[in-house]
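Sample entry follows:

:::
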Amino acid sequence: MNPTISRRRLLEGAGVSALSALGAAAGAQSFDFRPNQRYPDPAVYLLDPSFTKYRIYSSTVEQLGTGMRWAEGPAYFPETGTLILSDIPNNRLMRYEEKTGRFVVHKEGANYANGNTRDRQGRLVTCEHSITRRVVRTEKNGSTTVLADRFEGKRLNAPNDVVVKSDDSIWFTDPLFGINGEWEGSRATPEQASTNVYRIDKDGSITAVVTDIVNPNGLAFSPDEKKLYVVEWKGTPNRSIWSYDVSPDGRQLSNKVKLIDADGPGALDGFCVDRDGNLWCGWGYSGAVALEASDIGGGMKAHLPLGRSEEMDGVKVFNAQGKPIGFIRLPERCANLTFGGPKLNRLYMASSHSLYALYVEAHGSV
């Protein structure tokens, strides 16, 4: 059998055109995926009976595209029915088109873009994770506006995730990941004394609103915007999501409370919030290993992992009180996710090498 034809048929069977999939896979490994044939999808777990209302009995996890090295930052645009997401090590933005099913390169040379979001005017806001180390907006004519690249005269660390509030202020996290090494950008010495969460006001002024979190990562507002949730990547002892009360004028944060603890080797990353206030969290194994080495044969000892990726990779859902209620198991670790589709009830999951989707009975809050 002609290997090119075989490959094409396999990709088309997974719902991805051969041309777009091969373009997306350039320089990276793509992975085959077989959706579950039976309903309900056994990959969707009820951790609590309350999650039953959000599961669609006749909906299964789909792979929409593959061939990335580290997928991140999905942002949905209802005007065009497209999803933009980052492929960080490949230094590009990818695009999935709902109407055609095409998955293609949207932009090369994206300054190692990480988090993306849509502002209230339908423009793309992007965290350029390395090199430029800035937050930018792509205007309707394709030009780029720099929204933030410095704070108090010093360069930002590595802008990571971003969200736009209803008053048009832009909030973003600024950990060190994009300048810690050469995989997600270029190594550099940080200039900021801490890793902060910032707010950009409509007049362009920048304020550090959270300064006591070590490497803040994903962030999102509750549906009524009375709370801000922030992931602490380097929490003690585990990764966590912290909840802050937002003042009535939307400018001040108070009452820091740990809402979710990743509980040992669990890894929180990006997340999104539905209209009922549930947090849909990218989840996986943190990479934690035992302090003591164990015999692995051949005269060698190794520090063995404390978790199993195949048991933890996916999306974990928590209610507004921080109780786990649902889990979507994926074949790859999910780094970030968002709601999309005409009814905002399609969950898009950016997961390591691939983009997955699942229709649910929940709707994105924004």
